[in-house]
Write a structure and sequence with these properties.
With 248 residues, the chain is of the alpha+beta class. It contains seven helices and ten strands. It folds into two domains: 80 residues, OB fold (Dihydrolipoamide Acetyltransferase, E2P), CATH 2.40.50.140; 117 residues, no CATH class. Helices cover 33% and strands 25% of the residues. Strands 3-2-1-4-5 form a five-stranded antiparallel sheet. A three-stranded antiparallel sheet has the order 7-6-8, covered by helices on one side. The chain has a two-stranded antiparallel sheet with strand order 9-10. β1 and β2 form a beta hairpin. The two termini are 37 Å apart. Keywords: DNA damage, DNA recombination, DNA repair. This is DNA repair protein RecO.
Length: 248
Amino acid sequence: MEFTERSLIIKVGRFREIDLWVRLATPSRGVFTAFAFGGSKSRRRFLGCLDPLNHVLFRFKKSPRGEYLYLMEGTLISGHPHLRSNQRMLGRAANCLKFYESVYEGPGDSRQGFELLSEALSVLEAAVDSSPMFPVLFRAKVAFTQGYGPALLTCPHCGKDLRNSVAPMFLVEQGQVACTEHIQGSGRRIPLGTEALDILRIVKAGRPEDWHALEPSPVARRQLYDIVDGIVRYHLGLAWEDGRFQRI
């Protein structure tokens, strides 16, 4: 069986003298590893394709017993050269890739997430600079697309406009933002100021180009980091440890 699909390359490694393994993401199959036999020598089949961050149209084929996929040929769509030449931007892109890899690892429809990642990389490629918060906001957006986005306009208990609440709180275990008068239950609570609340609204409703350059104040930055970390840890079961996201 053969098929053709757009792919984003996450990592590449050698497993024999001229053969490569390629860790990649696709819209319909999530994150997986395929093999490029002769990939380190073949210029005709994979010209300029087999590097991390590349957006490639690959032709895949299943092995005779269906145990693995290998790459027949590839056509480069985008190589993101600006990212490769800017260590700061490259670091932000790599963090987004690592998070995406952890969330979408294995088979499954990841079309919405794939388009989000593709757009995030394109925004970073085109931008002169981006906010240091970009990877954190990217994680928030991924969590929102996974269904973990709390209501950010009104209190779920009384319908009060959260902007008029003196000190709304994000209730981590409940995945809700509640007004001061209706904070219920136990568990971790994170204060949510107006600035952080507005930024989360922009992220939830918008696209990476809408929030890639946002520069929150130190207080809002801390709140956003704590809220996104709470969502990712409690609801997605992931934590940043030893330079990568791991299941907890």
